[in-house]
Specification:
Elements: E1 11-14, H1 18-29, E2 34-37, E3 54-55, H2 66-69, H3 72-76, E4 83-85, H4 91-102, H5 106-133, E5 145-149, H6 152-157, H7 159-167, E6 173-176, H8 177-183, E7 195-199, E8 203-204, H9 207-222, E9 225-227, E10 232-237, E11 241-245, E12 250-253, E13 255-258, H10 264-270, E14 278-287, E15 297-300, E16 305-310, E17 313-322, H11 331-344, E18 356-364, E19 371-376, E20 379-383, H12 389-402
Helix pairs in contact: 1-9, 1-12, 5-12
The site of flavin-adenine dinucleotide has 44 residues, from α1, β14, β18 and α12.
Length: 409
């Protein structure tokens, strides 16, 4: 065990979701004395809690895509139940929306996807290295993933992004429905399937469990200190940082790293920074497997749903609501998710025995690229990971730790 006692930290990390825990690990692994602080009772209680569980290394596509342009009128009129837009009163929301629209061009979509893909591949490497050095249990498996397409047109439209991925060394194939069913027989239940994009190296894992087990490694082996039920209430910058948390403790360190997910923008504002992050609410449910549950993870591209086996359970996630700020589960939306899932894959889960339903807020940037940088030698940002924070966490932590400047630089 390392660490220099409770009164000395090199870095305070705010937020113990997948990104904060991966960041604390990467910093401590490079020798920093880290204290990680979170307002929740334990790690992984925010957007990382019950997400879709996909480590989608091969699927890094930006949300702002040319294909979304045709859907804008329906979106604006609230006619698309899968992607809802709720106009939020704060000024930052409209600037965000304008930037999101600007990112829908073909060239920006390609650039954003390329950047995120690069980070996803770094994350895959970092995850493999972690598994070798410090194997931890979090229902991790590499079953591969299939994106289901229901028209020749949609399948052909995906060809350009498949080519882009392949240029970066990603294994990805376009398969006919018959070829796909020969690999994953559970697809026989899908009505109207035309073909799939198959990514054999994509993985799954329980993000909350990962936060808990990796943080335990951080505590035991790397001397990382933790403060839970410790919401940050005040941050003062004077000779380094003084961070006041609920309960009255004041933590001090020369460096501060913000990994507070969707709430990063609110904390950043108190530090004089405007971060282009908006919440995009999504839902998930966890159920026992049905009579024909696939081994391979599936994404229904029409209904924008992900399905996977997670340990002995099936996890299904989807829906997007831009501008929603409450984490509460709306029973109607949860019912919509269950209905869509059953319509797409009727025998995948035991829909009568759903064990838990959940909603979370994805911290989304307009270009789908997370914000990973040191503002100066004292303040780091690792946030805004949107739809893919679980996939991108390990690479993001490593990048920020690698780039940590010397104090005063
Ligand atoms: C329905 C759904 C499905 C998803 N599916 C996938 C998927 O399949 N694959 C994938 O890669 N990604 C997926 N995502 C996205 C992914 O879950 C997120 O991008 C990721 O969890 C963000 O992690 P984070 O650590 O940045 O934020 P969080 O996990 O939200 O962590 C932020 C932490 O900061 C803490 N915090 C905030 N403010 C304060 C404060 N003032 N004081 C102290 N602590 C504070 C919070 O308590 C929280 O624990 C999904 C998201 C949703 C909602």
């Amino acid at each position: 065990m390392r660490g220099r006692g409770r009164d000395h930290h090199d870095v305070i990390v705010i937020g113990a979701g997948v990104v904060g825990v991966a960041t604390a690990y990467a910093l401590a692994d490079r020798g920093a004395a880290v204290c990680i602080v979170d307002g929740a009772e334990g790690p992984g209680r925010g957007a990382s809690f019950a997400n879709g569980a996909q480590l989608s290394y091969a699927y890094a596509d930006a949300l702002a895509a040319p294909a979304l342009i045709a859907k804008l009128p329906a979106l604006a009129l609230g006619l698309d139940p899968l992607f809802r837009l709720k106009l939020a009163p704060e000024a930052g929301f409209y600037a965000w929306l304008a930037a999101f629209l600007r990112n829908m061009t073909c060239s920006r979509f390609q650039r954003n996807t390329r950047e995120v893909l690069q980070l996803a591949l770094e994350s895959q490497e970092q995850m493999q290295a972690l598994q070798k050095r410090r194997p931890i249990a979090f229902s991790h498996a590499v079953p591969g993933k299939m994106h289901l397409h229901y028209s020749e047109e949609a399948l052909r439209a995906a060809e350009a992004t498949v080519a882009l991925k392949r240029r970066h060394g990603v294994r990805q194939d376009i398969l006919s429905a018959r070829e796909a069913i020969s690999i994953e027989p559970a697809l026989a239940q899908v009505r109207g399937l035309v073909g799939v994009i198959y990514s054999p190296d994509d993985a799954v894992g329980d993000a909350r469990l990962f936060c808990e087990t990796l943080l335990e490694v951080c505590r035991q082996d790397l001397g990382v200190e933790t403060r839970f039920a410790s919401e940050v209430t005040k941050i003062v910058r004077k000779d380094g940082w003084r961070v006041s948390v609920a309960g009255g403790e004041v933590l001090a360190a020369p460096r501060l790293v913000l990994c507070a997910g969707e709430e990063s923008r609110i904390i950043a504002r108190t530090l004089g920074l405007k971060l282009p992050i908006q919440p995009v609410k999504g839902y998930s449910f966890t159920a026992p497997p049905g009579p024909d549950a696939p081994m391979i993870s599936l994404t229904d591209t029409q209904r924008k749903l992900v399905f996977c086996r997670l340990g002995a359970k099936v996890r299904v996630a989807g829906l997007a609501e831009l501008g929603a700020s409450s984490r509460a589960v709306d029973p109607k939306r949860a019912q919509l998710l269950r209905g869509l899932a059953r319509e797409a894959l009727p025998a995948v889960a035991n829909y009568e025995a759903v064990e838990s339903e959940w909603a979370g807020l994805r911290p989304m940037t307009p270009n789908s690229q997370p914000i990973i940088r040191w503002v100066d030698s004292h303040l780091g940002l690792n946030t805004g990971h949107g739809m893919l924070g679980w996939t991108l966490a390990m690479g993001s932590g490593a990048r920020l730790a690698r780039a940590m400047p010397a104090l005063g630089a």
